[in-house]
Amino acid sequence: MSIKRALTIAGSAAQGSAGIQADLKTFQERDVYGMAAITAIVANNPVTGKGIFIHSTEQIEAQYYAAVEHVGVDVIKTGMLFSEEIIELVVELLAKAPTKNIIVDPVMIGKMGSQLLQDDAIEVMIEKLFPLATIITPNLHEAARILNIEKIKSVDEMVQAAKKLHRLGPKYVLVKGGSSLNATDILYDGEVCLEFKAELIDTIHTSGAGCSYSAAIAAEIAKGKSVKDSVELGKQFITMAINHALSFDKGIGSTYHAALRKYG
Fold it and tell me: 63-89: per-residue pLDDT in tens?
């Protein structure tokens, strides 16, 4: 049996809704073989008071080569990278990776408010990682932070942001509007802007939505779909996952990764 292979380089979210866990669940649902190189463990909780535990570059590099050398890879997605040192390593690895299908989700702030990317790492991400990307997938907050502007308040401003982000080197830019802009996303390839819309779902339970959306796009690209078609399928996947979101004992609940398969 032949199956496409996807590697995520990101943080582990103990609650299971975001990060590596969300990526692997999404890869499984989108019928690609998922692998992971964990950059950090995120475990915010009221008992220990400790939240983020960073892996060494040696640990990350070992995981990367274990996946790539033993299994092979058709797409690589990045999520939480946290530090300048880790980004420098990832850039070095991706520059000689056996695939040029690179999806960069510039994760900065978690749903629980944790800072998942250090301030001094943002410039390194922009200057060195973005030019390697097939597509970058920032949400409104991330796009504004990258461009050093206060806020993106309309679809027209999303279009302008996408064009400015494209000048930083990625082949495609997807600016995700989320609930702030009526579930509207803008995809830009350097020439044409496409608008993707979905039903706006009234829920706070959207933990992992950004990770899962980007992972779904990565999975479709691995299978040979165009970027446009991959975004369209990813949008369908995440809309269903949010529509059937899960709520638990406390805080923001998770998107439901099996929703499209079960209810679509």
Answer: 999 999 999 999 999 999 989 999 999
